[in-house]
Design brief:
This protein folds into 2 domains: 120 residues, P-loop containing nucleotide triphosphate hydrolases (Rossmann fold, 3-Layer(aba) Sandwich), CATH 3.40.50.300; 244 residues, no CATH class. Helix content is 39%, strand content 16%. The protein is built from 16 helices and 13 strands. A 6-stranded mixed sheet has the order 8-9-10-11-13-12, with helices on both faces. A 5-stranded parallel sheet has the order 2-3-4-1-5. A hairpin with a 5-residue loop joins strand 8 and strand 9. Helix 9 packs across helix 13. It starts with 8 loop residues before the first helix and ends in an 8-residue tail after the last helix. The relative contact order is 0.10.
Length: 385
């Protein structure tokens, strides 16, 4: 299967230097080889010999460029978090020579926590996420919901094995080797609990009780998941006036397959609650990827009222999306969107489901999931303010 990624790193470098973050196995190195071969100097900090030389003498980076200068000179530093001190030299080369850098990493933790030089706006940030709808020529929804979109998993005849190896690598190389957690067994139990409650409102006390750790430790563990890019917080949308909104955030893992691997999922039955949650998870990841790749700064939030009305995703203040895995939409499925419509703030209201019938029910547009995703990536579904 041939995979063409949506993110165009050459187009990014034509605009400015960039940090390109992405979790392990999302395909950053492959993307660089595919799109920048022969166009950029690539420095892989996983190469021990080169990393040691640059650590001893960061000015070697400038010497590797010779006399070249200007925005047409591109340099990729892969896994830049391995050598944060190199960013001072990157800063100098951007300022003095106008060189463009693509700085990739699978963890922002060392950069954020080590007071690294983040280039003070001289480099923007982009993210490479798991594979999305337009990147897969043969899209199999049941397989994708179960195994997710990491390229090695998608391309493997044994996706279960790939996911198990991924989880083991994450714990061994991202967590244990970097000494990010002192007690790995407790963290492993936390991962399982976090995956089981994927997409639900955060409850540090409950998960702490399940794992036998304080709530403060659970909070730190969630921050670690964010820093290592395997999950993200979805804030609550709190602008509703007629109904009091709950302000607690939700947490999502970055990939459906990784969430299942951590939770110990063996099968995913079509009519189960887990299928419905995975379906919602997938639609949310497509929305997140679209916002990221289109360079949109609209926040992706959710809404829940104190009276338990809920809408799964709100883009900015203008577009709301409720996700239902049902094959036959009923008025019950529309209640959250209908309550949100009464607020008079969000203008576009969509219900996405497995119902093949496209319909308009009052202000709510009901779309089959395939139609919704096609229109999303065609850029004719979500507008702006």
């Amino acid at each position: 299967m041939s995979l063409t990624r949506t993110l165009d790193v050459a187009a990014l470098l034509q605009r400015k230097s960039f940090f390109l973050f992405g979790a392990r196995a999302t395909g950053k190195s492959h993307l660089i080889r595919e799109q920048l071969a022969g166009r950029a100097l690539v420095i892989d900090l996983l190469r021990g010999d080169l990393s040691l030389r640059l650590a001893a003498d960061p000015t070697l980076l400038g010497a590797m460029l010779g006399d070249r200068r200007g925005p047409d000179v591109w340099v990729v530093i892969d896994e830049v978090q391995k050598l944060p001190s190199l960013l001072d030299e990157v800063h100098r080369l951007i300022e003095e020579r106008g060189v463009r850098f693509l700085l990739t990493g699978s963890s922002a933790r060392k950069l954020k926590r080590g007071q690294a030089n983040l280039l003070a706006g001289r480099a923007w940030t982009a993210e490479l996420l798991p594979l999305t709808w337009p990147e897969l020529p043969e899209f199999d929804l049941p397989r994708f919901l179960r195994y997710g979109g990491l390229p090695p998993v998608v391309l493997s005849p044994e996706p279960d094995e790939e996911l198990r190896a991924y989880v083991g690598t994450y714990l061994r190389e991202e967590i244990q080797a970097e000494a990010l957690i002192r007690r790995l067994p407790q963290f492993s139990r936390f991962l399982a609990s976090a995956a089981t409650t994927n997409g639900q409102m955060l409850n540090f006390a409950q998960i702490g009780s399940d794992c036998g750790v304080p709530a403060t430790t659970v909070r730190e563990h969630y921050l670690l998941l964010e820093d290592t890019l395997v999950g993200f917080l979805q804030p609550a949308w709190t602008r509703s006036r007629l109904r009091k909104a709950i302000s607690t955030a939700r947490f999502w893992f970055f990939d459906t397959g990784v969430a299942h691997a951590l939770a110990g999922t063996r099968t995913l039955e079509r009519n189960s609650d887990l299928w419905g949650r995975s379906f919602e998870h997938w639609v949310g990841m497509e929305l997140r990827a679209w916002l990221s790749y289109r360079r949109r700064d609209d926040p992706l939030t959710y809404w829940r009222s104190a009276a338990q009305h809920e809408v799964d995703f709100i883009v900015g203040d203008h577009t709301a999306i409720e996700v239902k895995s049902t094959r036959s939409v009923t008025s019950r499925d529309l209640r959250g969107l209908a309550a949100l419509a009464e607020e008079g703030i969000v203008r576009r209201l969509f219900l996405v489901s497995d119902d093949p019938v496209e319909a308009k029910r009052g202000p709510i547009v009901c779309l089959p999931w395939r139609t919704f995703i096609e229109r999303l990536w065609s850029d004719d579904l979500i507008g702006g303010e």
